Request: fold
Amino acid sequence: IQKLAHEMMEITSHDNLKLKAVYYPSNKERNVTVICIHGYTSHAEREWAFAGLFYLSLGYNVLIPYQRAHGMSEGKYISFGALEHLDMLEWVRKINEMNPDDRIIIHGLSMGGGIALDLVDKGLVTDQLVLTVSYDIENLTDPERRKKYKGPVTTDPYGRKIPKHAHGTANLKEKTSSSRLLSEAVLSLYD
Reply:
């Protein structure tokens, strides 16, 4: 993904940190930008390389921010979402300024998933939730865990055998930030 046309972007956090992101514009006019939020101690572009390419193939713009205290962004401490969700609100504002007609999709992994949910608490609304649960490769490499693991197995992009992730989508009737409705939607994925 790093070989594709991109531009570096920067915001200043509420506590004056310079936070960086990589923006990959689509060559199609789809009016959608996906903000990809990485997990704890992850390298943002490496974590989002495959998904980013997928979103670009759909014609979506892709923004991959480096969370505070990660990669190119400033900061000494990771707050596990307590401050990062405020940073993410700034990235949403930045995308709204750049592409005011765009629909924004926020996709978070691990700590990034928690940050995405914190945004709902701040009043951002959604009409869809997507839940993806990745399983640790140690479910196959650790002999004790392997005996207990009964799920399907797939191959990752590096050729390793890994447990297949679980995935589900819940579409809501209308846009909402209601924690009750969102919780019901997520729980319906487990039924």
Q: What stands out?
A: The longest strand covers residues 166-176. The CA atoms of residues 68 and 79 lie 9 Å apart. The radius of gyration is 17 Å.
